[in-house]
Amino acid sequence: MDEARVTDTADTNEQAEPEGLSVIRSTVDGVAVVTVTGEVDHHTSGVLRDAIAPAHPTPGARTVADLSGVPFMDSSGINVLIAGHQAHAPAGWLRLAGVQRSVLRTLEIVGLTPLIACYPSVRDAIED
Fold first, then answer.
1. Are 71 and 99 in contact (CB under 8 A)?
2. Residue 124 · residue 95 · CB < 8 Å
3. How far is CA 58 from CA 27, 55, 105, in A?
4. In the structure, what pLDDT confidence band is assigned to residue 19 with cuts at 50, 70 and 90?
5. Are β-strands 93-97 and 4-8 bridged in parallel, bridged antiparallel, or unpaired?
6. What are phi and psi of 101, to 5 degrees?
7. Residue 21 C-alpha from the chain's centroid
8. How many CB atoms are closer than 10 A to CB 118?
9. What is the pLDDT of residue 101?
10. Strand arrangement of the beta sheet that strand 4-8 belongs to
11. What element of type H or E holds 119?
């Protein structure tokens, strides 16, 4: 049973429940920002997949996944990021922000960092 929820904060400041994986979606300067908190594993990766997929599959979709609250990500999360990158191609992009060192190391080992750009902050990811 998944302990994960997605909260769309377009009209509210509410957050998802603290247990499991919390995903908050918002829009900043026309860019979808997905703020993720908790561990991404095979139990919770489906929620992340749904959250980073473009809301409307139109060319040029842009999404920043704020992973500053993610201390652990297994191969399920890596697969979700790859699928998310592909869903945004060719005209849009998926960028990662605030990736913790432990997760960044995993992304580097599997060779994902040349494919999906990582930034220190959401603002940096949006402005680049």
1. no
2. no
3. 16, 9, 32
4. low
5. unpaired
6. -55, -45
7. 12
8. 19
9. 97
10. 4-8, 21-28, 31-37, 62-69, 93-97, 118-119
11. strand 118-119
Tokens representing 31? 């860019």
Which pLDDT score is estimated for 15?
Answer: 40
Instruction: Report the alpha-carbon distance of residue 33 to residue 51 in Å, rounded.
Output: 9
> Residue 11, SS3?
coil
Q: What pLDDT sits at residue 56? A: 76
Q: Is the CB of residue 49 less than 8 Å from the CB of residue 21?
A: no
Strand partners, 37: 22, 69
What's the CA gap between 46 and 4, in Å, rounded? Answer: 9
pLDDT single digits (tens) 37-76? 999 999 999 999 999 998 777 788 999 999 999 999 999 9
CB-based contact 107:78 (threshold 8 Å): yes
Nearest to 39 by CA among 18, 14, 55, 12: 18
* Assessment of whether the complete model's pTM goes beyond 0.90: no
Both tokens of 14, joined, read 């509410």
User: Are 68 and 102 in contact, with CB atoms under 8 Å apart?
Assistant: no
Q: What is the distance between the alpha carbons of residues 4 and 59, in angstroms, rounded to a whole number? A: 29
